[in-house]
Design goal:
Radius of gyration: 18 Å
Largest sheet: 7 strands, parallel
CATH topology: TIM Barrel
Number of strands: 11
Low-confidence stretches: none
Helix content: 25-40%
Distance between the termini: 33 Å
Strand content: 15-25%
Oligomer: single chain
Strand order of the largest sheet: 3-4-5-8-9-10-11
CATH superfamily: NADP-dependent oxidoreductase domain
Number of domains: 1
Mean pLDDT: 93
Length: 289
């Protein structure tokens, strides 16, 4: 892997990682609920990611629930100390890719303790509030994470699924090391959040479903550029995320070894400035009908 192509990103004052991580949401059954069809293969994919040079592995207590964290702990049992593990609390899994927010401080404290046990760690490198609970002031939810950090159970604090206004409110409470939102070539609702992160040096962790492989029409911008590089559309789309801003750390993830090998192929893919611009401008035509 030529990791020099993607470079690295600082996450908070203590953590620095290469700019493609691994997303653990898809180490579960359908709808991020229940166990994966082949737990051994899922564990092997995480181990392969780290062996290839990935330094950030991201998960959440609601993936499974609890299953993703448990599989990741098994996979990382003998891995290098420079692997950063990120997890999240603040959502209750309902199945079918649906969740309910729970930002109560007492819930977040219990969730963090559970994640520490499952991940077999004394400190969670990056702990992210998984959603803003409309029934709980954001300041109260973040206050619980600040207390966890003061107790040594959390090293850095991040947010997920937020807008610009919520990010600004959060930063009045504490330093925010990362923001994780859904974002890819075709899903650009959080462009404004990304711009704030880029301006202020906050890591932006875009996640996207593995099924979103952007099977482009050959005459689309994505199809043409993929053909030019001898790459798949999914690889080009991932390389575009890396180039989109210097703070992005994309989180591809899957429980299928072959799909992960395809993702790794994006590490050394060099897109030109005109190609990056064309993809950004013509994203709407990227996928075939």
């Amino acid at each position: 892997m030529d990791w020099k192509v993607v470079g690295s990103m600082q996450i908070g004052p203590e953590l620095r990682v290469r700019r493609i991580g691994f997303g653990g949401a898809w180490l579960t059954g359908p709808g991020t609920f229940g166990p994966p069809p082949d737990p051994a293969a899922a564990t092997a994919v995480v181990r392969r990611a780290v062996e290839a040079g990935v330094q950030l592995v991201d998960t959440a207590d609601c993936y499974g629930p609890e299953i993703s964290e448990t599989l990741i702990a098994e996979a990382l049992a003998d891995c290098p100390d420079d692997v950063v593990v990120s997890t999240k609390g603040g959502r209750i899994a309902l199945g079918g890719n649906t969740w309910r927010a729970d930002g109560r401080p007492e819930h977040l404290r219990q969730a963090c303790e559970g994640s520490l046990r499952r991940l077999r760690r004394e400190t969670i490198d990056l702990y992210q509030l998984n959603a803003v609970d409309p029934a709980v002031p954001l300041e109260e939810s973040l206050g619980a994470l600040v207390e966890l950090r003061a107790a040594g159970k959390v090293r850095a604090i991040g947010l997920c699924n937020v807008g610009v206004a919520e990010l600004a409110r959060a930063r009045l409470v504490t330093d925010i090391a990362s923001v994780q939102d859904r974002y890819d070539l075709l899903t650009r609702d959080h462009d404004d959040v990304l711009e704030v992160c880029a301006d202020d040096g906050i890591a932006f962790l875009p996640w996207f479903p593995p099924a979103n492989e952007l099977r482009a029409a050959r005459d689309s911008a994505l199809g043409r550029i993929a053909s030019r590089h001898g790459a798949s559309p999914a690889q080009v789309a991932l390389a575009w995320l890396v180039r989109r801003a210097p703070v992005t750390v994309p989180l591809p993830g899957t429980s299928h070894p072959a799909w992960w090998e395809e993702d790794l192929g994006a590490v050394g893919l060099r897109l030109s400035e005109p190609e990056v611009a064309e993809l950004g401008e013509r994203a709407g035509e990227a996928a075939s009908a």
